[in-house]
């Protein structure tokens, strides 16, 4: 370690913060890690580590603002003093005393840096990013894989904070390092593509990846290349079962997804077509449950190789058939429910509107093989991208709700937390809003509160954490923020940020995030590398050769 200064005596030193006077031939900048040793009577030496979160420079000997001009003219002799404020991260052993004025302060490197940031105690760790000096920032896997905690929440301004890019980087780091050990190849990830086609090319090399970008991956101990075990899903076209809907640039390697009429009825998926914010606060939710129960009981026991539904002797082969059946038999279905006629009418209007929005996602299939081919199988491949960006909002909610419900049910049946499943869900405020209850919110909340024991890890992203259900955010062990609106940064949801970090969050550049994890009391600035996989059509490399040293 090299000496960078001395503990100041003009500013009070406290057990959790102190000032350092920087020597003339050294410098300290934001995010540097420093260490100081102080002797405690009867206890021996105590090592104090901290992070620089503020640096100041000023004239000594000047009294007035205008003295700066006199100094430049050589009339007024002054000295220049530089000082850095240090927020303490660790005291070892835990004797909470302040360092004494005049004691030497060192820049922490090597093992001292690992100690100061608690990296030395992480038995299982993953590369969460790089510091501004190019050193690895480690994350404790035990707070991500459910051992001691789980879930990640990422906040930031759309288009600037690079939230989804960081979520993809985290998955890449987990899948292409040895941190998961024997679980690496069995771990799965499900990602919902909600905007454009940005996530539809993870299996393609990025043509814009430069040697400098590749060097960042080398520093992190990672290969530089695309994801290797990928399946892509997109909604079926309204006219053809073999054609995906809404994808202009990527058709190869993409499978169309759809649900059979029988599965829709038996699995009680109707609720996810009524997932708007006002549904759960009205009698509509009761009407939905009545119809769900009717369809499920009527189709109970019907074989899995039958994709249509037979209800009261009537064969239903499409979603419009379901709508017609409910409309025609409304009196029999609702006769014992005591639901007002106006509520039933409102239910039927919304049901009818769902035909155009999502009806093509529920249909009769010709065979069991066809149903299996178009069923989203998230267990078959490591990375599963489910495209919903071209769908109506009601259809988006339906797909997200159904997939998450099926995933949780599968994990419940398995009864163990392994293999792990990571779920990446952007626009989290839409699916788990703070000010309303919806069927999808119930599923997301179930993952946040119970997912740790099931091995389901939520990586949620949103522009504003203040609009997301508190319990979802509170259950996230890792909190990450990119560029934030200045007013949003002052909300209580960002209480883990220091005041200095709140101010800096308003000017963060893309690729820079503040990362907070349970063991480290202060958020760390991390940088993550440029995606080695294509994020849009024009980034797909003309030659898809895997870079040398990358193992398929």
Decide which structural class fits the backbone. Answer: alpha/beta
The main sheet orders its strands as: 12-11-17-10-18-19-9-20-21-22
Supply the number of helical segments. 16
Strand content bin: 15-25%
Principal-axis shape: elongated
Helix amount: 25-40%
CATH fold type of the largest domain: Rossmann fold
Radius of gyration: 28 Å
- Write down the domain tally: 3
Describe the overall structure.
It is a single chain. α7 runs antiparallel to α9 (341-358) and α11 (393-414) packs parallel to α13 (439-454). Mean pLDDT is 91; it is low at 545-552. The strands form five sheets. This protein has a ten-stranded mixed beta sheet. A six-stranded antiparallel beta barrel has the order 1-2-5-4-3-6. Helix content is 28%, strand content 23%. The longest helix is centred in the C-terminal third of the chain and has 22 residues, at 393-414. The chain has helices at 67-72, 110-116, 163-175, 211-219, 261-266, 284-298, 319-328, 330-334, 341-358, 368-373, 393-414, 428-431, 439-454, 470-474, 486-489, 499-505, and strands spanning 2-7, 17-22, 33-40, 44-60, 79-92, 104-107, 125-130, 136-140, 152-155, 188-193, 230-235, 254-257, 259-260, 309-311, 314-316, 362-363, 383-387, 421-425, 456-462, 478-481, 512-516, 524-527. The chain folds into three domains: 2-117, Elongation Factor Tu (Ef-tu), domain 3 (Beta Barrel), CATH 2.40.30; 151-258 and 375-537, Rossmann fold (3-Layer(aba) Sandwich); 260-363, no CATH class. The chain has 16 helices and 22 strands. It is an alpha/beta fold.
